[in-house]
Amino acid sequence: MKLALGGALAATLALTAAASADITIAHVYGKTGALEAYAKQSHIGLMMGLEYATDGTMEIDGEPINVIEKDTQLDPARGRAVLAEAYADDGADLAVGAVSSGVALAMLPVAQEYEKILIVEPAVADSITGENWNRYIFRTGRNSSQDAVANAVALGGENVKIATLAQDYAFGRDGVAAFKNALAETGAEVVHEEYVPTDTTDFTAAAERIFNAMEDVEGDKKLFIIWAGGGNPMGKINAMDPSRYGIEIATGGNILAAMTAYKELPGMEGATYYYYEIPDNPVNDWLVEEHQERYGSPPDFFTAGGMAAGIAIVEAIRKAGSTDTEALIEAMEGMEWETPKGTMRFRPEDHQALQSMYHFKIRVEEDVEWGIPELVRELKIEDMDIPVRN
Known about the structure:
Elements: H1 2-19, E1 23-29, H2 36-53, E2 59-60, E3 63-71, H3 76-88, E4 94-96, H4 101-114, E5 117-120, E6 137-139, H5 144-155, E7 160-167, H6 170-183, E8 189-196, H7 204-214, E9 220-226, H8 233-238, E10 247-251, E11 269-272, H9 282-295, H10 301-320, H11 325-332, E12 336-339, E13 342-346, E14 353-354, E15 357-363, E16 372-379
Helix pairs in contact: 2-10, 3-4, 5-6, 10-11
């Protein structure tokens, strides 16, 4: 009798589980902390990407999508813990995150331990798909080398002398290293590097060191700033009048709020990952229209990235025919899919998403709150030689 009851109970539980078998995606990201604005955009984009790719059903082949959120609070140890919790306790089939490169690097071994996919979005450090990579890691976000190669195209040239200012952690140091490597092909030279704590708000001392190092340098002098979060180094250093030393400020793209400082620098050139008016494709058209209607503003830098990750998840599960990790890896290696930036492709060797970048020149319009990155040239996948991990 016990055996019969046990068998019946087991069968009932199995049927119940089958009936409620959602596709569970964990978004593990810094909802609170210094990069909260980035995180909010990333989550909105992820949900809009899932919606777009499923035609609003939030189902893949009849299976409902369940998205759970885990807050890393920008703490690497907490990032590891909540990702493990998502895989082990919440039954996540795969995860997306993190905002911070330092947190993302801490999370990589957890994906390997649980043999589950982690889609890195939007953390940038090269080492994520470089020396610290494992086969369970895919990245939809751009990496430091993609930023670097694009900005080297925009800024490099013979007799160009560049100082860099960056945050003293993986994002900043990987970014400068990649930028220096990319510049080597252009004839430009980095003559000074300055690293400051991530929470720096007073840039006086750092700027003075840069000015002193550049004062007697001959050539076309630029200060290239790599920065994430608040602090506004560009605006504050620009207020110190670097032009008296013949130095022009340059930087890459950023969120719209940060780009208010760009309005002070008409004509400044750089390269960006995304600006809502640049890509011309149906996915971006949908994103811009829907985001404007729902939130009263255009989609931002990390909204596009989150959407790219959401679409990639749907396409991968459809292609794999399941959420089995090995089937997903096979489906995703070399996979191409359409995003707000156009076509992306997961490179089989390191699972980095190859994608377009955009060389821009800042245009200022009185009724627009930020400096507008006007397209100079789209740098397509085939235009950039992005290093493969060692």
